[in-house]
Write a structure and sequence with these properties.
heterodimer, A: two-stranded antiparallel sheet, B: alpha+beta, 2 domains, nine-stranded mixed beta sheet, two-stranded antiparallel ribbon, 13 helices, 11 strands
Chain lengths: ~140, ~400
């Protein structure tokens, strides 16, 4: 069970970390032009950067879940998985957001993919947390 | 130990087998619900788009049939023109109750004078209109004034609280129409006066002038008199007016309907194969499981469990697995279709509208029942066979 959960966390971490790099507007050659002629990335780019900040610890959580021997450790790691999954959902929706145009690639692929991956991370971590707690033996 | 506890123990006893059965239920439920959401949603979208159009016949310049369908359904901006005089010729045809001309316009792409790029815009004649005007009067008791617009459900103000810049001209967003799931949700509606005002001022205010050829219109919307034969009317229009094509609203979006029908047939074939294979696979898994557990079930019978108890425990196990797999499949299907809606619309090439919560709950219920029915159907024969077995023989083997 731990290996399965660890594997799921690592796969989701890879999706959360890698996919935004190819599906933000910056990757499609789009950026905001300022009055002084300089260009700055759109906000979906910063959501992509923040997603890497979620993906790295989520990957480490997955790796630790595979290696963990104690159920207590696994439980704590599962809770981390829930928090990191929630952050993956909140970055493109509430905390940073993506571009306003619904036809842009960040709106069509990046945002839904992060929401789906985050939801799966939260759901899987919660299910494994609850099922592990049920099978935990009481402390002596 | 009650039925539920026994079923749960059996499920946790062989997680691989349980996982495969749940996966089959997951596939059946997810596939069925995704197909239903897409196809029913597309049908609803087409119906709402036709209702929004509100016309029995739409007359467009010859050769523009596909363009008008793309514009109304996918919001792809179009520009085509025909003489304004056609309105009077069509209005004179017997059997026609009302005619109303429209102008189809588009904003510029990536120009600083337009705060929205590539938007399809429809200008209507408030004196004759029978599509937007009745809705406005019903909801606001008022018509659109010069510079005021009504937007589809996706249109929002970009300049301040209420304004949108088009060709350097600030229009005021007065209201939003209800969603149809089609390109009309990303379109904007205003009166002829506003269109001509934008066009005249665009010469000095815009990067590129909005050109509306004089004495030209894009299309004529027709409402037929009650009891009129629409096909005969169409034929009459083609005889009286040259270089135009009348499109019956019932024939509108035919290419999209054909595309949907083709996709539906393919999906139904794949679904039938998935469903059949899932039932066979689940049946085989339960047969193997029942054979493996002959001795165990024989012992349960020998210590007093009835045939009915053994039969019910196997079906309870099947139902729990079907419920877990089906519920997961349904949740993922609804989530994926909802959040990937824009991507699906652009990939499939036709719009669809998500159902109301009540209809969605009904569809979810049907999906779950389908998963439960499929798994129980597959588990039924092995359950009957093993429950009828003599406990003494089962324990000896």
């Amino acid at each position: 069970m731990r290996k399965l959960m660890g594997g799921i966390s690592i796969v989701l971490a890879l999706v959360i970390g890698i996919l935004p790099a190819f599906t933000d507007c910056q990757s499609q050659g789009r950026s905001l032009e300022l009055a002084n002629g300089k260009t700055v990335p759109m906000k979906c780019h910063w959501t992509g950067i923040a997603s890497i900040g979620v993906a790295v610890p989520l990957g480490l959580v997955g790796l630790s879940e595979i290696l963990s021997k104690r159920k207590e450790t696994f439980n704590i790691l599962s809770m981390f998985g829930v928090v990191l999954g929630a952050l993956a959902i909140l970055f493109p929706t509430v905390l940073i957001g993506v571009c306003a145009n619904p036809d842009m690639v960040c709106n069509m692929i990046m945002k839904p993919a992060l929401i789906l991956s985050g939801t799966l991370a939260v759901g899987a971590s919660m299910i494994f947390f609850v099922s592990t707690r049920k099978t935990m033996e009481p402390a002596a | 130990m009650n039925l539920l506890q026994l079923a749960l123990k059996n499920i946790s006893g062989n997680s691989f087998r349980s996982g495969v059965v749940s996966l089959c239920a997951f596939l059946v439920a997810a596939f069925a619900l995704t197909t239903t959401l897409l196809m029913r949603g597309a049908e609803t979208s087409l119906r709402l788009a036709l209702d929004r159009l509100g016309a029995d016949i739409v007359v467009v310049p010859a050769g523009s049939e596909a363009k008008i369908e793309s514009a109304l359904l996918m919001g792809v901006p179009v520009k085509f023109w025909m003489p304004e005089d056609n309105v009077h010729k069509i209005a004179a045809i017997p059997g026609i109750e009302a005619v109303s001309p429209q102008l189809y316009l588009a904003t510029l792409t990536g120009a600083s004078c337009c705060s929205v790029s590539d938007m399809f815009m429809i200008a209507y004649d408030p004196l004759t209109d029978f599509t937007i005007q009745p809705w406005l009067e019903q909801n606001f008791g008022d018509d659109l004034r010069l510079g005021e617009v009504v937007g589809g459900s996706y249109i929002s103000a970009t300049e301040g609280d209420q304004n949108i810049k088009i060709y350097g001209y600030l229009v005021t967003l007065k209201a939003n129409l209800e969603p149809t799931g089609t390109g009309l949700d990303q379109s904007m509606f205003f009166t002829f006066n506003t269109a001509y005002d934008i066009a005249s001022k665009s010469a000095t205010q815009a990067d590129e002038q909005l050109v509306i050829p004089p004495d030209s219109i894009s299309a004529v919307l027709i409402k037929a008199a009650p009891g009129s034969d629409l096909y005969a009317l169409s034929a009459h229009i083609m005889r009286e007016v040259s270089d135009v094509t009348p499109i019956l609203s019932s024939n509108m979006f035919q290419s999209y309907r054909q595309q949907m029908t083709g996709l539906l047939k393919t999906i139904l074939v794949i679904m039938a194969i998935t469903w059949g294979l899932s039932i066979v696979l689940i049946g085989l898994i339960f047969s193997m499981a029942a054979n493996e557990r002959r001795k165990e079930l024989g012992v349960i019978r020998a210590i007093g469990a009835t045939r009915r108890f053994v039969f019910q425990s196997l079906l309870m196990e099947a139902s729990l697995l079907a419920f877990a797999g089906g519920a997961t499949g349904i949740a993922l299907s609804v989530l994926s279709v909802t959040i990937f809606r824009n991507l699906l619309i652009s990939s499939l090439g036709f719009p669809f509208l998500l159902p109301s919560p009540a209809v969605l709950f009904l569809q979810i219920g049907i999906g779950l029942v389908l998963a439960l029915f499929s798994v129980n159907l597959a588990a039924l024969f092995p359950a009957i066979k093993i429950s009828r077995q003599d406990p003494a023989i089962a324990m000896r083997e």
